[in-house]
Design brief:
This protein is an alpha/beta fold. It is about 30% helix and about 20% strand. The chain contains six helices and eight strands.
């Protein structure tokens, strides 16, 4: 239980994995505990496949964070998300495991990799419960192809972006919580 607390309290990074270096026993426990690997932090592309494999079919939480920086690790985060999105595009089983998607891109540069990644998320996501999208610096259009318009468990949808939504945006059907920015900051929001 201590390992779960450590792993899940550091949601935005993978620093918790250093506990595997304490001793061989701790390493083995961590490697045999799929519940420790269910938060997929998109930091480096090389981590994506091992994280998916280690989570062994459990529900997933995806976290993508790119701060306003020219730091190369920030572009690596978007590349990691792109790799994950291509895997999900080809794997209905893995897409069905996704419960939470958290995307923060505070870069001042328009990022086509983010748009390509979103277009790859085109399979139904029956387990998706929360979608958080915070991309404040440029406009993005979310279409009905996002999760093929099928996310029957989606209850919480948060947008903190200049974003466009079509009036037929089917993912909003079953929501219990919808968070939107002030209307004048979101001119592309159609209803």
């Amino acid at each position: 239980h201590v390992f779960l607390f450590v792993a899940h309290s550091s949601k935005a990074n993978m620093r918790w994995t250093s506990i595997m270096l304490v001793c061989r026993k701790w390493h083995d426990i961590v490697m045999r505990s799929p519940q420790l690997w269910v938060i997929i932090v998109c930091r480096k592309p090389r981590w994506i496949v091992p994280l998916l494999r280690r989570s062994q079919g459990l529900p997933l939480s995806i976290r993508v964070t790119r701060k306003n920086s020219i730091d190369s690790s920030q572009s690596q985060a978007m590349k990691a998300f792109y790799l994950l999105s291509t895997i999900l595009a080809s794997s209905p089983t893995d897409t069905a495991r996704v419960e939470t998607v958290y995307i923060l891109n505070d870069s001042r540069f328009h990022d086509t990799i983010l748009e390509q990644s979103l277009s790859n998320l085109n399979r139904p996501a029956p387990g998706l419960r929360t979608f958080y999208f915070n991309v404040p610096r440029y406009e993005v259009m979310l279409g009905d192809n996002l999760f093929h318009g099928e996310a029957p468990s989606l209850r919480e949808f948060m947008l903190r972006s200049r974003i466009g939504l079509p009036s037929t945006f089917s993912l909003l059907r079953n929501l219990t919580s919808l968070h939107l920015p002030i209307a004048n900051r979101c001119p592309l929001l159609y209803y």
